[in-house]
Amino acid sequence: MKTGWHDASKWHWAISRYARFLMALILKTGVYYPRATGDLDVWIALVGYGNIINFFCMSMNITGYIFREDIVDKLAWKHQIQPEEVVEVFENKPHVEQLERGHRLGENLYVALGQTDAGRYLTVFFIHKKGGEALINTARNMVKNKTPKAPLPETFKTFEEMADFWDTHDVTDYEEYLTPVEVNVSTHPKHNYVITLSDTLDTALRQVQQKEGVSLNTLINLWVQEKLQQYTVVVTGN
Predict the structure, then answer these.
(1) pLDDT in tens, 23-37
(2) Overall number of domains in the chain
(3) Could you list the residue ranges that cross the membrane (predicted)?
(4) Are residues 219 and 102 in the same domain?
(5) Shared domain check, 209 and 150
(6) From residue 227, how far is each of 6, 22, 88, 213, 218 by CA, in Å?
(7) What's the confidence (pLDDT) of residue 103?
(8) Under 8 Å between Cβ of 32 and 1
């Protein structure tokens, strides 16, 4: 007998609905930290309770992370967030939801709500790629945005447009479009950084790659490893 996960997911959603409501209440009242009232601890406990029945939910595996150069720069200057903090959120068992709207055509958008190792509460938006990597779209502190609720587009035309929208709008205003997802994070994830090379560097790099007979990924990893070893020798004097 075929049983759709969607109906079961609605049951899970109903159980965890109060958790999201409490989170929204905390954010709207300006109380963010458990040392103030303990409410955020209650929210985390409720989310954990919802995960007891996570076998009814969609599930995904996170095998690694992809950080675009422009996104890393924006996270640093606009939100004061480092890539390692984003990774820590995933490693610390976040609550993850899929957004049924507000994504990019052909690619689903997800939001992860969780903590860094230092206890910082972050909201992370990401696209789950076919290879299992989480392509980070944006991330910010788990605080209530002052921007009034606006209609949520079905899709966004560009990656940047999607990031700009979620930088200024609160996901708790769109809970009718959220579906809980169970996430399994690899213990040895890959970290991919998308950087921009000049035409001259790109040409030179490909010439070396052809001469050495290895992939660009292998060549760059070897060079980075070699450079880090040289740096360690200079810093430590060993």
Answers:
(1) 555 544 444 444 433
(2) 2
(3) 18-36, 42-67
(4) no
(5) no
(6) 50, 49, 26, 21, 14
(7) 63
(8) no
